[in-house]
Design a protein that fits this description.
This protein is an alpha/beta fold. It is built from twelve helices and six strands. A six-stranded mixed sheet has the order 3-2-1-4-6-5, sandwiched between helices. α5 runs antiparallel to α10. The longest helix has about 30 residues.
């Protein structure tokens, strides 16, 4: 009798612990995906029949651009249809021969580093003629599984750009288009396994990344904060969608961006892993602290 009771209590304890762990994991995923907000937005669209916002006829293209990497098979027509007041630089990273020789089609030197190859290629090729605002976006417009990281109803990138406060981008220099810190920027995520000491050194050595020199000798008291070092924590809200000002881009010389792209091309890390490293470094590249 006692033995059976102990077995029953032990089983109940194991089930309880497993349930708690599972619930925490589900809750964390729900937070990352903004699942509750997505369900509410979906129901509102079904029940309230929200009007679709049509861009005005004859919309003028502004002094701003969307930079995007796409696969050959991706449909990015939504960009021109829904955001006609933005210029567009859409790079096909895996072009067929026919696509690669088509006039006007933008391609990258290599299909590696996920979106980073397109982002860096645009900055390098247009460094001297940048528009005032550059928004770096993924090729998917919306969707729970593809665009879960977009902090807008139905995870809609169109809504994200339509509500983007351009004066704030100009003032801040760099703005992550995701406000939710989970994943990427919560305390537990900042001991970053992707950006190791070796990776930080490889990417930023010989660039203008503050601290701006790599000497261990402090020649002047004011130089003590300019020593090249690797921060103990690196964190940023995922997932490599952000906006920057022209002035912020040009705080670095063009040679820095060429070096960053060369690192992506030359590193032994594959497409996904090199892209993940860059995902956690854009805010640093564009002048923000490591977290």
């Amino acid at each position: 009798m006692i033995c059976g009771l102990r077995i029953g209590l032990g089983t109940l304890l194991i089930i309880t612990i497993f349930t708690i762990i599972l619930w925490r994991h589900i809750a964390d995923l729900g937070d990352q995906y903004s699942a509750g907000a997505y369900i509410r937005s979906s129901l509102e669209r079904l029940t309230l029949e929200l009007p679709h916002r049509q861009p005005p006829v004859g919309t003028l293209v502004g002094d701003r651009i969307i930079v995007m990497a796409k696969m050959e098979e991706d449909d990015t027509s939504w960009v021109s249809e829904e955001l006609p007041d933005w210029q567009r630089a859409i790079y096909t990273v895996n072009p067929t021969h026919e696509t690669s020789v088509t006039p006007g089609v933008l391609t990258t030197p290599l299909n590696k580093g996920h979106e980073s190859m397109a982002y860096l290629t645009y900055v390098i090729d247009h460094y001297d003629r940048l528009p005032s605002t550059i928004a770096f976006l993924h090729s998917h417009r919306s969707g729970f599984f593809q665009a879960w990281h977009v902090d807008m109803p139905l995870h809609d990138n169109v809504a994200a750009l339509q509500t983007l406060q351009l004066p704030f981008v100009d003032k801040s220099g760099y703005v992550n288009l995701r406000c939710n810190w989970n994943p990427g920027c919560e305390k537990a995520h900042r001991r970053n396994k992707h950006v190791t000491h070796e990776i930080w050194q490889e990417v930023f050595m010989h660039t203008s990344t503050p601290p701006a020199n790599e000497s261990n000798v402090v020649s002047k008291p004011e130089d003590k904060n300019r020593l090249f070092y690797t921060p103990s924590e690196v964190g940023a809200a995922c997932c490599a969608q952000f906006a920057v000002s022209k002035e912020q881009v040009r705080r670095r010389p063009k040679s820095d961006y060429e070096k960053f792209r060369k690192w992506v091309i030359d590193t032994e890390k594959d497409d996904a892993k090199s892209g993940r490293v860059m995902e956690f470094l854009w805010h640093v590249i564009f002048g923000k602290g490591s977290v």
